[in-house]
Specification:
361 residues; five-stranded mixed beta sheet
């Protein structure tokens, strides 16, 4: 634990070295110290975001950055040198227990796809509380690639619009692989929901040579991969809501962030290093340093303000946008304003050391 008198300091970990920063201005005040000499930070609060003292364990911090994965997933990331070896996962997480409690189910064996997009598993979650504008969605379409376990979430305001959302996402997935090789979807596997069995959708799929495979009615275990993807995403939505106390309307942003992180997390049965995005595109994933704990307080550059107005506005980090060619991370920020609004920006300063742990009183 690092405490230096009465002056607040922050320790930002960068794998094996810990630079010491003045918490008030986030500027270096001392050379980096060996990682083995500290694993936690104790800082007096500025009075803005929390109680008198905050304790952040390294394992807790990465557990939150990765949106509450299991211990095995964190161990695999450490073995791949994508996160610090010393980031031991917490022994207990109250938010995980609240968000991930479930019944144990057996899944029958089945034949796996041999390439990306050969089989896509589909399911719809909802109705859910209306999400933030502009979509104001009540449903989430979850798509899982059988070969790579890559997951995609798309939001829809109504069930009737699910077929159009599905066709748009299929086009995006095929375009994502186009720079690597020309690959088309072969079959879709889903339950017998009306959104998947409509004559209009069947006609469109048949015209492009895509087969539809339907599971028997009232047997969700027959569509086990889709159900498991639903659970993985919804668990993280509930967990992050419990951990941050953000309004429930943010569930759509959490679902997007969850799939983003899940696609970067080693998964059982995935070829190669087990990372879904790698298996899907063939490109090596070598960057996780841009990840931040969901809900982290931050400041984002204000645009269009008057000359003497503040240059930044407060918000909370609620997701990620695609990385630019220069590897600059873009974040989704929920602004601290009414009405609730989410923007995308690369000009973000995080107040990570002030983030309150869910178990603190």
């Amino acid at each position: 634990m690092v405490t230096i008198g009465s002056k607040p300091f922050a320790v930002f970990r960068k794998f094996d070295r810990l630079p010491l920063l003045d918490a008030s201005v986030l500027l270096p005040v001392a050379p980096a110290v060996p990682a083995s000499s500290a694993s936690a930070v104790e800082l007096p609060s500025t009075g803005i975001w929390g109680p008198e003292v905050h304790h952040i364990q390294l394992g807790d911090l990465w557990h939150r950055r990765l949106m509450h994965p299991g211990a095995k997933a964190m161990h695999n990331l450490a073995q791949l040198d994508l996160m610090p070896q010393q980031a031991i996962p917490p022994t207990f997480c109250d938010a995980c227990v609240q968000g991930k409690m479930h019944r144990v189910a057996l899944q029958p064996p089945r034949q796996r796809a041999r390439r990306p997009l050969e089989i896509l598993h589909l399911d719809v979650v909802g109705p859910l509380p209306t999400s933030l504008p502009p979509i104001r969605a009540c449903y989430a379409l979850v798509i899982t690639d059988d070969y790579s376990r890559l997951r995609i979430v798309a939001l829809s305001a109504t069930k009737a619009s699910i077929p159009d959302v599905l066709l748009a996402e299929i086009a995006k997935l095929q375009a994502q692989l186009a720079p690597h090789k020309v690959v088309f979807v072969v079959s879709l596997r889903s339950d017998n929901g009306g959104e998947f069995t409509s004559a209009r959708l069947a006609s469109i799929l048949a015209s492009v040579g895509i087969q539809s495979q339907f599971t028997p009615p009232y047997t969700p275990q027959s569509n086990g991969l889709a159900e498991r993807s639903n659970r993985a995403i919804i668990e993280r939505v509930r967990t992050c809501l419990a951990a941050t106390s953000l309004p429930v309307e943010v569930w759509g942003e959490i679902a997007f962030a969850a799939t983003y992180v899940l696609n970067l997390t080693p998964t059982k049965g995935v070829p190669g290093r087990g990372i879904p995005l790698e298996a899907f595109t063939g490109d090596r994933v070598d960057i996780l340093a841009h990840l931040r704990a969901f809900g982290t307080p931050c400041y984002v550059l204000a645009v269009g303000n008057q000359k003497l107005a503040p240059r930044a506005v407060r918000g909370r980090m609620v997701g990620y946008a695609s990385l630019s060619r220069g590897r600059t991370a873009a974040y989704r920020i929920l602004l601290d304003a009414t009405p609730l609004r989410v923007i995308t920006s690369v000009d973000v300063v995080f107040a990570s050391v002030l983030l309150r742990l869910p178990t603190e009183s």
